[in-house]
Amino acid sequence: MTRGVKSVLVAVVLTAVVTGCALVRKATYPPDFVYLEKTQVVGAMAELNVDLWRIDDIIAGSETILPYKREEIIGILRHMETVANRLGAGPRTTNHLFIDDNIDAFKEQVLEALRFVEKEPPNYYFAGRLSGGCMACHQRR
Ligand code: HEC
Asked: Which residues in the chain show pLDDT less than 70?
């Protein structure tokens, strides 16, 4: 075999191995599967906890919410949406069935709060009640 033929063969074999691994991976996990470590869940919860606390602090602490505070609330709500997405909201599934069952309802409550805060004039009712969204998963705790 010439050198050229040999390296083509090596390339073909390598490609086959790499493709094979990719296929095995696909077969093991559906494409929309997110594997969540326990630390990722706990970390996400800690972030949500801070977000909620910050929103409550703004809403409870002011008679009138100034425009820059409104922007702050909008930013926090968008962050909560991002965290919900990290926890597999949408068409994805995770290794936590309990989270899969409840995260979409939670995200919907965040988005509803966001829609109301972005209204003219803004309405903070749902933003102030977001802890109710946590109850989807935390009722019995
Ligand atoms: C989709 C389900 C779900 C929603 C919604 C949810 N949580 Fe959790 N939360 C969990 C699960 C599951 C755990 C347990 C994590 C673990 O220890 O494995 C947890 C744990 C926690 C913890 C304890 C973390 C630790 O240190 O062990 C806090 C605090 C927390 N959640 C706050 C919140 C707050 C605040 C909200 C609402 C803004 C919320 N959670 C919404 C599922 C949820």
From this structure: 1-29, 140-141
Bridge partner list, 93? 33
Residue 63: the pLDDT is 86
CB-based burial of residue 116 (10 Å sphere; 0-12 exposed, 13-18 middle, 19+ buried)?
Answer: middle
The reported pTM is 0.82
Pocket residues for ligand 1 (CB within 6 Å)? Answer: 38, 41-42, 45, 48-49, 52, 98-99, 102-103, 106, 133-134, 136-138
CA of 128 to the centre of ligand 1 (A): 18
Q: Whose CA is nearest to atom 26 of ligand 1?
A: 42
Residue of 122, 128, 103, 118 whose CA lies nearest to 52: 128
